[in-house]
Amino acid sequence: MPPLYLSYLHLASSIREVNKSYRLTDGKQVMVLEAILMAYSQDKPFSMLDLVLLNEIASQVTLHSIAKQLIQLKLIQAHTSKTDARRKYIHPTKLGLSWLDDCAKVLSSLNMSHE
């Protein structure tokens, strides 16, 4: 069994390859996508307001720009609330969920190699 740090390096490299295949070029894009996916997995609505409050990731302007990039990459979608036209909600697309699945497969393959 290889040392644990080598497993980590393999995992990090493999995840970078997955990100590259989905054209995710910035760690901040990944953190925003992960936040959206986490809310989605917990059946919690995720609004643009929730996004811009993620100030530990970046400024409001940068977060809004990242959301636009993720929409262009077809990893997330934004839709206007039916009850309040001022609110937009964000959720992952099928492609965004595929990104998560591909990352999970990398982790799973790493676990399999240790058994």
Structure notes:
The chain has helices at 4-21, 27-41, 48-52, 60-72, 94-113, and strands at 76-80, 88-92. With 115 residues, it is mostly helical. Strands 1-2 form a two-stranded antiparallel ribbon. Helix 2 packs across helix 4. The radius of gyration is 16 Å and the shape is elongated.
State the main characteristics.
62% helix, 115 residues, 5 helices, mainly alpha, two-stranded antiparallel sheet, Arc Repressor Mutant, subunit A, 2 strands
Short description:
The chain is mainly α and 115 residues long. The protein contains 5 helices and 2 strands.
Q: Strands, helices and their partners?
A:
Layout: H1 4-21, H2 27-41, H3 48-52, H4 60-72, E1 76-80, E2 88-92, H5 94-113
Antiparallel strand pairs: 1-2
User: What is the name of the CATH architecture?
Assistant: Orthogonal Bundle
Through-space gap between termini: 9 Å
Q: What structural class results from the helix and strand content?
A: mainly alpha
Mean pLDDT: 92
CATH superfamily: Winged helix-like DNA-binding domain superfamily/Winged helix DNA-binding domain
> How large is the radius of gyration?
16 Å
Q: What is the CATH fold-level name?
A: Arc Repressor Mutant, subunit A
Major β-sheet strand ordering: 1-2
Per CATH, the class reads Mainly Alpha
